[in-house]
Specification:
2 copies of one chain form a homodimer.
Chain A (H helix, E strand, L loop, with lengths): L6 H8 L3 H8 L7 H13 L6 H8 L4 E6 L5 H16 L3 E6 L6 H10 L4 E4 L6 H9 L4 E4 L10 E4 L1 H14 L5 E6 L4 H17 L8 E4 L3 H12 L7 E4 L2 H13 L9 E3 L16 E3 L2 H18 L7 E4 L2 E3 L13
Parallel strand pairs in A: 1-2, 1-3, 3-4, 4-5, 5-11, 6-7, 6-8, 8-9
Antiparallel strand pairs in A: 10-12
Chain A binds a DNA duplex (16 and 16 nucleotides) through helix 2 and helix 4.
DNA sequence: CTGTTAGCGCGTTCAC
DNA sequence: GTGAACGCGCTAACAG
């Protein structure tokens, strides 16, 4: 394995100083085009690439973006990661991820990324202790929140309009004649959980439908919560006509419980989800849901982040709100014959 | 934002030289325990962590493992990534990923990781031009292939016994009375595609069942291939009793086509998949399949890789073969009443 | 436009 | 067991 070349070697071969090589490699304008061409030909002839470690050390920039998620194997985050990656590569950055599951204490996950010397961070995880974020903000560390907000703190973020997403789904259900609509969603501690519930509330209010506590279940954003919540609804005297699941995972649990109880969808009861993850699309699931456009979320988040990093001014003034996209499938059926 | 401390600052505060601090931080034994304690107390008091960029530069080790996949949002790879991450963090390494989708030319994806200065690579992607791998092997670059092999080249790899997995599924089908079994799988250019097909062939041969060309479809490992292949089978004079899908994605397409044609599973036709991805578990899919244990694959791959990196001897002698795990669900039903 | 010089913060080497 | 001097390959600052 032949020894790795340095810019000095290239400089010698091209008959220039190593700084000229450095300038050429960094697209510095102050190099004559002939010199540039000569240097580049040597660079290409030897397939030279500058030592990334030296570069990072010297410039104090790693060109790495840290992605903090609760679990990279969750399809929502994985798609987010894809969007981030695409954009990052455009700017010649790389993505390093860390799942909070993979280190004992959640907070350690953040430290892992920080210790690695990332230039900026995307927080897609919602489980993180906020005081850590506050500290980063105080140090004006480049930072973008994705799929969550931090009430009371200015911080760049990219979110989906969760409230609107909920309202879109509710409107869709109303339009089909459904009135008795129950909801199963995640905790109001999370901005996503809170806002989707708000959308549900405000839609009912506008429609003049009383809000029934019996029709509201809050738990985790998982299948089990969907299953248990649905069991509860099924046993109600006045069973809901439709169930609004706070995300697709919950919707999975809803379908489980409904199938088990011999109830058909949408015949006996309609279901909507949230997120438009892969399985919602499957023919046997066929879930009407709303897309948060996680791929774009990731791409936009990285774009903002890289600009903060490169302009060395992180003013935390970027607040992007994506419009949710209604995806109509078969889980709500067509118009109900008669309003009850 | 207060200036970042260096080991020299710590050294001053502790009244020692920066080298002593360096030794303490690197667990070098040649430091008296009192000195060590004093240094550590200062380190902890200031929450000091050595500059990772300087460290990487100086040691020429980034403590980053590159993960090359065809698409990180594919759940198979995402779970692999989780397993890798868990193990990497144990050793204080980080994971940087790159999807081949995200750069124009597939080969660029590898360069992206290499340019970033990763210490080693996990190739989980199957689409890569093999000549690139050969070159890395020649340079004895730390490298582990996961979920694929490279025929004709010694290279560390961790794979599932695909042939055995196929045989397990076939045996399961035979045991239930199925004899006319068709297969839809990926290209034989991939070791996975080839070996699963081999398992299919050898099982039939042993059972003394003739291999019918009509019952074999090879394409991509995707849903469309499953759909199209199934349409073909449905129209056959002698329709197969069971379809062996080369992976769960293909199985999805199989189910699509079957549902569309009004055929029930397993009533009219049985289906098995491969991979045990999340959706296979869903009640409405309920696919009997085989797990490749991708999480363990990732963890084992990283373990091997880190040992290669740290021992600076990459002999490429590690070949781990994981035993596939049969996951029985409902897509094959119970014993057939009569053999045809 | 180009070159010279001086670090960046660590680890390595060799003294003591 | 400890410390001083040096160098890793690059970029930044200034000089020409």
């Amino acid at each position: 394995m032949k020894k790795k070349l340095t810019i000095r070697d290239i400089a010698n071969m091209a008959g220039v100083s190593h700084m000229t090589v450095s300038r050429v490699l960094n697209d510095d304008s102050r190099v004559s085009s002939e010199t540039r061409a000569r240097v580049l030909s040597v660079v290409r002839a030897h397939n030279f690439t500058p030592n990334p470690k030296a570069r990072a050390f010297s410039s104090n920039k790693s060109r790495i973006i840290g992605l903090l998620v609760s679990d990279i194997s969750n399809p929502f985050y994985a798609e987010l990661a894809r969007g981030m990656e695409e954009k990052a590569h455009e700017y010649d950055y790389n993505i390093m991820f860390c799942s909070e599951l993979s280190v004992d204490k959640e907070q350690e996950a953040l430290n892992f990324l920080l210790k690695a010397g990332v230039d900026g961070l995307v927080f897609a995880s919602v489980r993180l202790n906020d005081s850590r974020i506050e500290r980063l903000i105080k140090e004006s560390f480049p930072l973008v929140l994705v799929n969550r907000e931090l009430p009371g703190h200015a911080c760049d973020h990219v979110v989906c309009n969760n409230r609107k997403g909920a309202r879109i789904l509710m409107k869709h259900l109303f339009g089909l004649g459904y009135q008795r609509i129950a909801i199963i969603t995640g905790s109001s501690d999370l901005s996503t959980g809170l806002q989707r519930l708000e959308g549900y509330h405000s839609s009912l209010r506008e429609k003049g439908i009383a809000i029934k506590a019996d029709y509201i279940v809050q738990g985790a954003f998982d299948r089990e919560t969907g299953y248990n919540g649905t069991r509860r609804f099924i046993n109600l005297d006045e069973r809901p006509q439709a169930i609004f699941a706070g995300n697709d995972y919950i919707a999975m649990g809803v379908l489980d419980a409904l199938d088990e109880a011999g109830l058909t969808v949408p015949g006996d009861i309609a279901v909507v989800g949230f997120d438009n993850t892969h399985f919602a699309a499957h023919r046997r699931i066929n879930l009407t849901t709303v897309s948060q456009r996680q791929y774009e979320m990731g791409a936009i988040g990285v774009d903002i982040l890289i600009h903060s990093i490169e302009q060395a001014k992180t003013d935390y003034q970027h607040h992007v709100v994506l419009e949710p996209l209604l995806i109509i499938r078969e889980s709500c059926g067509h118009r109900l014959q008669a309003a009850h």
